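This section describes the prediction task in plain terms. A model, or a person checking by hand, is given the sequence of a single protein chain and must write out its three-dimensional structure as a string of tokens. No templates, partner chains or ligands are provided. The sample shown here is typical of the held-out split.
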Amino acid sequence: MSSRPHPVLQQPWFILFLIALPYLLSTFLRASPSVMAVELAQEFQITVSQLAPISGLYVLAYGLMQIPSGVLSDVIGARRTICLLLICMALGNFGFAMAESLGLASIARGVAGGGAALVVPCLVILARTFKGREYTRASAVLLFLGNTGVAIAAAPLVLLISLLGWRALMCSVGVICLVFSLAFSLVIPNDLPERSGPQAHTTLTRIRTVFTTRGFWPLAFVYTCITGMFFSFTSFWWGPLLIQGCGFSQQTAGNMIFIGSLPLLAGIPGIVLLADVLRSHRKALQSLLVVACLVTLLQGLFIGKLPAWMMTVLGGSFVLCCGTGAVVFSATRSLVSDEVVGTATGCMNAFPCLVTGLFQSLFGWVLEAALASGNDIATAYGRALFVNAAILSAALACALFLMRETYPKN
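The expected answer:
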């Protein structure tokens, strides 16, 4: 006879606290290459610019694992999926710590990146634990903690690297991942839903069920545009735009990016509150897209003509509008049944990860074409920003005319 878990372990907010720990760890580690860049370059006797594969393979593996992690959450349960991903992340960190070449280090980081795709099974557990608007708030807390992990990663990592060295630190992280995996297998209750029919027996059937769900594709298009644009802008083009397009120094641009990134932390719970006030996911996303389009246009029109504080405000306003994950995942949850909620969440989260590179390349192509036509650098960046605004406008049109309302009625 199976023993029942302690009542405290079945409390929804206690479960949220538990799953937030490994997710916070995964986002914390995402920032580690930038902090360890100098040490890694010295260790492998290369330049810092040659470290790109270490970050690139991590992000690629993370994006490619979104759908598989969602399908696994539906097939074997999100709890077991998290345990497997934590083991994968541990192996990746052990391999990274023992790597003697850049190639082996990059492969190990790719393994760790695949294991770091914890957000989908974590959201699945929340979807099966919280209902209605409570799920939206719980997912907002989870995403807030994850982004806080990225924001606070630098200082503790610098201290730990100075105390332990980067190899010992990565080994320690691997051990922590294994401890988390064991704890999850023992503490988190079974999360598999009751099967209501044969429609979700195979992986392809699950994906087909999600892809043919009415309302999925308009929501996916909106989320892909705004989140892919956010990743493209903040992870690469924001710095060059401020330095080359506006003429700010590298130090000033770095300070502007740091301050401009902070509104994301307020935006995640703030957007959930906005949806509750409007009692509409659709209207909340429409409002955010209007603001995102306007600030992107203003940046393009007045690039090189505005002071640093104004460009920081515009950049921060755009970042504020991009914390839509909790609302979008809640909308996704409303569209599908419990049997495919993992697959649906994984598919929704995969698209922005996979198109970020395309958006980054598109920005670069427009910039190069404008420069080749004889325009100055500020005008060229302005043209590229206009293309970004056009993509956001397409997302706004989709939200206005095609997107379904998914706000829970209960």
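For orientation: The radius of gyration is 22 Å.
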